[in-house]
Amino acid sequence: MSLAEFEPPEQQVAHFPAEGLSGEEVRERLRAHRAADVDWRSGRIWSLVYSAGPEHDDVVHDAYREFAAENLLGPTAFPSLATMEKQVVWMLLDLLGADPRTSGGTMTSGGTESMILAVKAYRDRARAERPEITDPEMVVPVTAHPAFLKAGELLGVRPVPVPVDHTFRADPSAFAAAISESTILGCASAPCFPYGVVDPIEDLGAIAASYGIGLHVDATIGGFVLPFARELGYEVPAFDFGVPGVTSISADMHKYGYGPKGSSTVLYRDRELRRYQFSAYTSWPGGILGSPTILGTRPGGAIAGAWAAIVYEGKAGYRAIFTEVMKATDRLHEGIRAIPELYVLGDPPVSVFAIASEQVDMMAVADRLESRGWWIDRQRDPDSIHLIVNPTHVPVVDEFLRDLGWAAGGAPPAGSTDGGAALYGVSARLDASTDVEAAVLDQLESRYDS
């Protein structure tokens, strides 16, 4: 039996096919699988996909295909990849104000890996320099990405939560109070994902330095857009290596760097800290293994595509991209201010923000927007919808604002529904009476088993 004979289509991968399909049949199947996907090219989704336009994407995808088979696990076999990785890191260090004589970093597969590696570096340095710490801790604002919590689980570093103030930024006093003799690092966001605001990095950096600990800044979203928005005249808080207390930064290529998925960076003010990120295994029969990141195999396409994105655009190209993005953001903010029921949470400096209301039910607003073909991310504390603006949204700003006004105007009063629990990256929510953690795990299982 061939793969083509499996029916219905969703069962076509349930058994290993006895015979394969032609290349054209495979492409047809891929297109069929995509039929139910959101139309991101038309700007209908406000997260997950970052695109700078067809011409840019073609350059990046061509670079990815050119190096799709190569593997940076073997840097001596593929010095081209080793060179491109170093150059991507050097270019990001330059953009973020590091001293090239002393700083360093590596590429990674994404922001989560970058943050896990940073926590590993601080943990292993503490093991070497502060062996009296047996239960290490890190100070983590509640708005920081859960990747820090995942790092803590994997590496045995206890996260100590820090509340935010009325501006949704980490409270410096609470941050200082959370530091103990077991603290090995503090964490901050530039910006945080939920509200798009930048933590008070200068204050947190000064506190961290006074206690002799490092401060890692998660700039996975902001690493590109914040520097260029500042160049364009927008008021951007200090967040990078220009702040003395900042000792490491994670910055994604595959978000606002417009590189391919699977490309990020972790960067260090002092490359001596980077050494603690690395792993070495010397007694394996297969040979001595040195590993700079979590992954063993390191896909060449992601590295080449990231390199191609930067050298294709240069500062002038990124400046033009973010001119478009920020103008669209300004139009959205202006349009939201004209809708009486709605407001933007906090004071986000760039193109990541959340819309809330004290008058209407925001979960119902999201439902109504989805009825008109928009994919909407929902959030809690407070109930809100989340937007990340990209060039794909420039042509649809006016349409979205019209639909947003319609959705708010017809939504029930705030608190009318049970609200439920919003799921990150999923256009859905869980019932308010649900055991949320168990329900999320059930949903993950069903994704693979049904």
TrEMBL record:
<dbReference type="Pfam" id="PF00282">
    <property type="entry name" value="Pyridoxal_deC"/>
</dbReference>
<dbReference type="GO" id="GO:0019752">
    <property type="term" value="P:carboxylic acid metabolic process"/>
</dbReference>
<keyword id="KW-0472">Membrane</keyword>
<protein>
    <submittedName>
        <fullName>Aspartate aminotransferase family protein</fullName>
    </submittedName>
</protein>
<dbReference type="InterPro" id="IPR015422">
    <property type="entry name" value="PyrdxlP-dep_Trfase_small"/>
</dbReference>
<comment type="pathway">
    <text>Sphingolipid metabolism.</text>
</comment>
<feature type="modified residue" description="N6-(pyridoxal phosphate)lysine">
    <location>
        <position position="255"/>
    </location>
</feature>
<dbReference type="GO" id="GO:0030170">
    <property type="term" value="F:pyridoxal phosphate binding"/>
</dbReference>
<comment type="pathway">
    <text>Lipid metabolism; sphingolipid metabolism.</text>
</comment>
<keyword id="KW-0808">Transferase</keyword>
<keyword id="KW-0746">Sphingolipid metabolism</keyword>
<keyword id="KW-0443">Lipid metabolism</keyword>
<dbReference type="InterPro" id="IPR050477">
    <property type="entry name" value="GrpII_AminoAcid_Decarb"/>
</dbReference>
<keyword id="KW-0456">Lyase</keyword>
<comment type="similarity">
    <text>Belongs to the group II decarboxylase family. Sphingosine-1-phosphate lyase subfamily.</text>
</comment>
<dbReference type="GO" id="GO:0008483">
    <property type="term" value="F:transaminase activity"/>
</dbReference>
<keyword id="KW-0032">Aminotransferase</keyword>
<keyword id="KW-0256">Endoplasmic reticulum</keyword>
<dbReference type="InterPro" id="IPR015421">
    <property type="entry name" value="PyrdxlP-dep_Trfase_major"/>
</dbReference>
<dbReference type="GO" id="GO:0004058">
    <property type="term" value="F:aromatic-L-amino-acid decarboxylase activity"/>
</dbReference>
<keyword id="KW-0812">Transmembrane</keyword>
<dbReference type="InterPro" id="IPR002129">
    <property type="entry name" value="PyrdxlP-dep_de-COase"/>
</dbReference>
<dbReference type="GO" id="GO:0016020">
    <property type="term" value="C:membrane"/>
</dbReference>
<dbReference type="GO" id="GO:0006665">
    <property type="term" value="P:sphingolipid metabolic process"/>
</dbReference>
<dbReference type="InterPro" id="IPR015424">
    <property type="entry name" value="PyrdxlP-dep_Trfase"/>
</dbReference>
<keyword id="KW-1133">Transmembrane helix</keyword>
<keyword id="KW-0663">Pyridoxal phosphate</keyword>
